[in-house]
From TrEMBL:
Keywords: ATP-binding, DNA-binding, Nucleotide-binding, Transcription, Transcription regulation. It comes from the Bacteria. SUPFAM superfamilies: GAF domain-like (SSF55781), Homeodomain-like (SSF46689), P-loop containing nucleoside triphosphate hydrolases (SSF52540). GO terms for biological process: regulation of DNA-templated transcription. This is Sigma-54 dependent transcription regulator.
Amino acid sequence: MQMELHTGIDLAVALIQQDNLPDLLKTATRQLENAFGLTRCWALELDLSGRTLHCSDLAEHGEFDCGDFSHPFAHVLQTGKARELTRAASYRLDHVGFQALFEASDRPRSLWLEPLTGNDGRTLGVLVLCRDEPDWDGITGQPLYCGLRQLLVHQWITQLQSRDQVWQRRLLKRSLDHLHDAETVRTRCEQLARTLVGNSQVMTSLRAQIVRAAGSQLSVLVQGETGCGKDVVARGIHELSDRADGPMVVVNCAAIPDTLLESELFGHTRGAFSGADRDKQGLLAQANGGTLFLDEIGDMPLALQSKLLRVLESRQFRPLGAREEQHSDFRLVAATHQPLQAGIEDGSFRRDLFYRLSQFPLRVTPLRERPEDLEALSRHFIRLYTEREGSGPMGISSHALHLLAGYDFPGNVRELRNIIELACLQTPGGDDIQPEVLRINDLFEEPDGWTRAPSDARDRNPVDLPAVEEVRDLKVAAQAFEAAIIRERLRQYGGNRAQAAESLGLPKRTLAHKCLKYRVTES
Ligand SMILES: Nc1ncnc2c1ncn2[C@@H]1O[C@H](COP(=O)(O)OP(=O)(O)OP(=O)(O)O)[C@@H](O)[C@H]1O
């Protein structure tokens, strides 16, 4: 009796010490085997769905479907009563899992199958005792067996409860994380909406994509027509990224002559070429820790494209004339208004660079395809004008908006901005902008003053400049000037683009792009 008490206490202590369910079941089954001379003891655990019993000790076939009555455990669970199974009966059951268990138990003369249920009625699983001397009443009636069984059930429930709690905590944490992520994305989208204005579906989803792109280190390729906001997008990516405190280096590949672009990007050492009278840090190095924005990437010369590709693979580069390679940790955002696909097909743009640049592709929709944005954008530009000038219109009338909605904005948001700013100038402070002051279509039409020049003067200088004091927006004036020159030159060459391009020292492709941009036709 004394001996049994000691054994019971030792076994109980061992069970209580187990802090997870698999260890608890393993310890309990080993103890039962030792204490009652069993050839084997198994504890089959009912899973959360209540449909499958698992026997983790069985290497293979350790799962028993509770609805499959070709194994004896389903009966035991269904009746809730313990039962004995003889060796002869066991041989007759052809369930693969059961046969594996029978085999691994050394085919005992008898098996005792006992369902285990908690006080709250929750079914835990099935206990399987295997023995060659079946005296199940003698064993299961012993206080030691009853005590151990009771303790096992108690500890089993405790483990399930703490597992439930861990799961619930994990679930809670996951949903909180999810909420937090969604909240962060929402706030960042709101922040972005102050500079990238527009309530249309496409703009809302573009902002969400920008926030996602900003959170990654992937190279971003922004595509869209001229003036649609690619630059604003690139700045948004930089400002919302963890590089926001670092530099944002902007390079317009179309604005820098091909011969200079390489040394501008890579930098050079003193004496690297004639005129290089001192070392110069390149833009790649300047972008270290920040973002490099390569605008008009479609205009990058082929030879430089290969070098850029190499830099993107390794972030290593060598300034012109330098012996050592340098490293720069920058994030690349590139933009283009040209369909790069066409460049790839005609061999002027490297396909591998295209894929490397567009790890996170973004497309900015032309303004004509999102007329819902016109009102918010117009009000945004009116506010900017008023802030800058100290006073301005109150808003814009619905008739004026209606007029804008009928226009197709080849110059996109930039053109809208110019139209609104000009209208602001002509609208008394505090009034709404009216349709009469919206000078739609004006941008690329030759102003009266220019065409009114006498024909002999035109022959000498067919593109007269507007009076300098009339220029309010240098970029617009320069573009209009460029458009007028191209139009005139095409006229001179009877619409022959190749000749016109050559006479202006432009590649044919660039002239074609400018014609598209300024809506200049050959006729
Ligand atoms: N969604 C927008 N919200 C507010 N301003 C915008 C938006 N889109 C464009 N703009 C404004 O329109 C003008 C042109 O935009 P931006 O320079 O970004 O166009 P882009 O696509 O980069 O043009 P380009 O192809 O000529 O380089 C800028 O003044 C810019 O601030």
